[in-house]
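Lab meeting minutes (informal)
Scribe: AK
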Amino acid sequence: MSHSVLLETRKMGVSFGGVHAVKEVDFVLNEGELRCLIGPNGAGKSTFFKMLSGQVSPTRGQCLYRNQVISGRKPWEIARLGIGIKTQVPSVFEGLTVWQNLWQAAANKLASSAIDEAILEVLGDIDLLHLKDAVLSELAHGQRQWVELGMILISRPQLVLLDEPAAGMTHHEVRKTAELIKTINQQSTVVVVEHDMEFISMIAQKVTVFNQGEVLAEGTFAEVTSNQLVKEAYLGNMEIKHA
């Protein structure tokens, strides 16, 4: 992948009832990156993510994707640009099989003649080919999350936005999810919002730390976890395990 700018925010922020949830944030994401957004509760990282994905409209500044202004657009409009979005609210069909869920995701994005091959490829990516006929409601939490990732991957988006993809998972599921996200990053640029620092250590290339609605620090995992300001604002005496 080249390393040209894929996504950029310019002085982007949002206020709710006079409270600056996110201040004027300048943020640059290059093609091929796997960027993690972290910070304490109320730091603004989740709201910032929601502005990137169209769930929240900024009240100031802009978000640009490939130099095209996308701030203020709806999530489905943003998805049409080649951006895959996974929020904390599940978007799977519990009464359908794994295959049927992937088919539903592909139906409006791919030619009918290409769907079966695309599903088989994605099932290989998420390592669920052996469960293709299983009903979603019968699967473990982690497996359902992987199906949802597969539904995003079916159209091979250029950018993937993931909101707490490891939430509620077992340690084994977390590790497998980390490997899956690194596999996704071989083809797509990825942004992950997460609070599980061990999970972050498994995947992070570059980390952006939010605090009080603005970017506090940015760098590698080692750089931000050794940053005194980050320790004071977020990490405290947290024991950081490096994967």
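Next up, CB showed the second protein from the same session:
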Amino acid sequence: MNNKRKMSDILEMIAKARHLTKEYYLTDYRNTEKRNSIMKELFGSVGNNVIIDSLFHCNYGKNISIGNDVIININCTFIDDEKIKIGNKVLIASNVQVYTAYHPVLPEERLIENPEDNIFFKTCAAPVVIEDGVWIGGGAIILPNVTIGKNSVIGAGSVVNRSIPANCLAVGNPCKPIKFFEDMRNSK
């Protein structure tokens, strides 16, 4: 997000995203035409055959691009102050959180005074990329400035604070690869 944006502009963008996500939930699940139309208005881009279950939350929506054949299960949160790019054939399980925003750790860098806009903290952001074929397990947390490589699997409950290579199973807090698919195939 542009650091020069006024708080009123930011709140308006957030309100629009909240309105569209609410409209999406209130639309009958079988009315795919209307649901797809809402997604096209909410997101920066959205592919074909995308299913997003109830209680999806995002800050702005416009910073999110979603490929084809993607399923985002219930109660997922995407804090999209920066770009979130989701590839094709991606599975995102329930309660996954994707964060692009963060705050400086040092208080003198984090706390600011800006009385005209009523802003009292500094927010920074970095993108998140989820490449094609990725499966993210339930309750995983994806932190800013992370890329999850093609076809990788992130175990349930993992905290991903660094990029994960392609074609591996990665788990834990912090999340790290524990098996590469090629090794798994060769050991059979």
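CB comment: The domain at 7-186 is CATH 2.160.10.10 (UDP N-Acetylglucosamine Acyltransferase; domain 1).
No objections, moving on.
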